[in-house]
DNA sequence: TGTTCGTCAAGAGCAGTGCTCTCGTTTTTT
DNA sequence: AAAAAACGAGAGCACTGCTCTTGACGAACA
């Protein structure tokens, strides 16, 4: 039973995969709003109602695409960061940043699905949470490494976190055990700065404003790295 | 002609305004995707085709709402920042940040229209550009003021902008004349960090992660202020 | 004052959407 | 071999943005 399932189950898995593939292609070209179950069915030579045998609703198909997207982005970040020597913490941060940016620019519509405005009636189910944490896990890991290596040198005159933030962001804290609060909040701030930039760039806010966006992004991420206390090796 | 136009023109302006008002209400409750010309017409007791006398297409109605949104946000930022003493540059920055956040949290769907994923087939016409710059103009103004007052003290060990960024971001540079490049790029970075945070918060990425989001936001904006060289008075 | 002319709301209609239900057929299970 | 489950096809519902035509009303002009 486990090794070779029934013919029906195999063709079902095959068709499910084909549906998501076609849907992802439509998503890439038309955007999230232009994703149409009927168009997917048409391209498969099926009738629209048959799709509902595989995905109970359009939202469930969207969920599948979102989970795939989080995993693709997470994998890109993991690979980009892993290509850097472990002791070069600034390099690991920059590599992770560029991996996010490169993936987002290469897959703008999928990125919009992950980090843009939520789709109208859509509520992310719990399944997406695990895949969603892969990118920030990389950030937490490299900060924790840097802290353990004594390579974190926060700038002078940096304001200390107020007391009401003492026991906050538990989930975020778990990703970098042992890291003190002031460093933790600079990391959180850097994380939002990264995605803030990528959002602006992917959604076109930098058109006709910045030309060499890659260089500007690189510099901005170096600035936030300095705030985090990561200095060149 | 100028003071009192014909009755027809006045009722036309009135109806146009009523359409945008109803549309804005629908946008606030349903989100951008749920905005329907037919629903607006229904609520006005008109027939759907009549709406097209006032807005040639759904996108034109969206454009009107977007321009209104940029102006509302810009005005909120201007007012928030203006309430702070001119010489307290850090306070002005924090006031502007909280104004953005407060407005975004109060009008999440309108904010999504401005800074979220672009609406599928929609391309922003040139009209939106002027209104779009109001918030960043405030930022540029306070940085320029701080620079002129000699109140900008960049942190040590901050990396200098690479040479390829020397003549970039001309539009951004115009907002803060006389400000040197290193300060300018910290300001650009702070700008993206601000909207990165607000994006995350409005779009729900901080749910179940950070509880006291206002305090965390305030601290994050103080961190970026330090990177910009704005210190407490 | 009477008549044209432009503006307007209404209605029907087109092509498209997500989704539901039913009806035979095919495959798996009992 | 019989019962059960899964499946594709088709019709249909309520909805969308948008177009076109029709008839009525108001304003300007002769």
Topology:
Two copies of one chain form a homodimer.
Chain A: H1 7-30, H2 37-44, H3 48-51, H4 58-82, H5 89-106, H6 108-115, H7 127-132, H8 134-148, H9 170-174, H10 181-202, H11 213-228
Helix pairs in contact in A: 1-2, 4-5, 4-6, 5-6, 5-8, 5-10, 5-11, 10-11
Chain A binds a DNA duplex (30 and 30 nucleotides) through helix 1, helix 2 and helix 3.
Commentary on this structure:
Two copies of one chain form a homodimer. The longest helix of chain A has 25 residues, at 58-82. The first copy, chain A, is elongated and about 65 Å long. Chain A has eleven helices and no strands. Chain A is mainly alpha-helical. In chain A, α5 (89-106) packs across α6 (108-115). The model of chain A has no long low-confidence stretch (mean pLDDT 91). Chain A has helices spanning 7-30, 37-44, 48-51, 58-82, 89-106, 108-115, 127-132, 134-148, 170-174, 181-202, 213-228. At the A-B interface, α6, α10 and α11 of A face α6, α10 and α11 of B. Chain A binds a DNA duplex (30 and 30 nucleotides) through α1, α2 and α3.
């Amino acid at each position: 039973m486990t090794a070779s399932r029934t013919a029906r189950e195999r063709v079902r898995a095959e068709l499910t995969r084909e549906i998501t593939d076609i849907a992802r292609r439509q998503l890439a070209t038309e955007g999230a709003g232009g994703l149409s179950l009927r168009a997917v069915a048409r391209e498969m030579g099926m009738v629209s109602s048959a799709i509902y045998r595989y995905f109970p609703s359009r939202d469930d198909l969207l969920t599948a695409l979102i989970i795939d997207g989080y995993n693709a982005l997470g994998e890109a970040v993991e690979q980009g960061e892993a290509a850097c020597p472990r002791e070069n913490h600034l390099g690991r941060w920059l590599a992770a940043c560029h991996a996010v940016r490169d993936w987002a620019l290469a897959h703008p519509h999928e990125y919009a699905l992950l980090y843009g405005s939520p789709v109208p009636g859509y509520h992310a189910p719990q399944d997406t949470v695990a895949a969603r944490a892969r990118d920030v896990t990389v950030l937490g890991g490299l900060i924790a490494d840097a802290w353990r290596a004594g390579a974190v040198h926060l700038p002078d005159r940096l304001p200390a976190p107020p007391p009401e933030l003492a026991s906050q962001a538990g989930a975020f804290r778990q990703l970098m055990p042992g890291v003190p609060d002031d460093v933790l909040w600079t990391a959180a701030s850097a994380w939002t700065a990264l995605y803030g930039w990528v959002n602006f760039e992917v959604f076109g806010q930098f058109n006709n404003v910045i030309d060499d966006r890659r260089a500007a992004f690189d510099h901005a991420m170096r600035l936030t790295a300095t705030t985090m206390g990561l200095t060149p090796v």
